[in-house]
Design a protein that fits this description.
The chain is mainly beta. It has strands at 5-12, 18-24, 58-68, 78-79, 85-87, 90-97, 109-115, 119-127, 135-144, 153-159, 165-171, 188-196, 205-211, 221-222, 234-237. It has no helices and 15 strands. The radius of gyration is 24 Å and the shape is elongated.
Amino acid sequence: MEHDYTLSVQVLGPDYRAYGGLNLYPGRGNFATSLWQVGDTFSETYWIPVAPDAPAPVMGRIKVALFIDDSTQEHLPVLDPQGQIADRSAVFGRIKIVPRERPEHDIENQVYYDLDGKVALIGYELTPPVDQGTGLDLRLYWQALSELDEDYTVFVHWLDEGGRILTQQDNQPRNGTYPTGLWNEGEIVEDLYHLAVPADRPPVLLAVGMYRLETLERLAVFDENGQRLADDQIILREEVPLPEPEG
């Protein structure tokens, strides 16, 4: 290569903001790209500090680029498999960003439901709406029962007494930022949901569970006595408290 390109390696959060990174010549500064020959291959390991304000736990990604460290900031283009210019950097991988210290959890309502031997719901906290038209906050506490190799989707449903869905929120845990495929056995994950209160305020139930997005198949749910629950869903409360109508 004619130029000495600077290697940029960054850790991206779910919002694609860089929460850590470094810029240096390859080979830890000892193998400038002007020394590279056609066919050269090498590998190296980088230790990248992550900013203390990085959201955690979340899934991160790696961003790699080569650029001229001058006023032009000229980047080497990244080509797609067809040889077409795709971007100025390569973004790839799934990495786990976790807090430096393991958080402690003071769970208000402790429960135990086993979801197919993979995940357990071990508790929840419910903040009822204070006024009509406001929402309800539901914080779930999951625990991985094994090393997970799939990304499951959580469902949180308001139901009427007949089981009809009034409103719902379905996404991967932590608003889609921390898929279960990254969880380690024994890990506890806080998972917050905000649901709108139905305007007509019928009696409602709260139901939660997990499913495989590709097939919509729910994970089988068992209570602490090993009994499988109907519809593979967990009813957290028989009735959700709602504010009294004004006037």
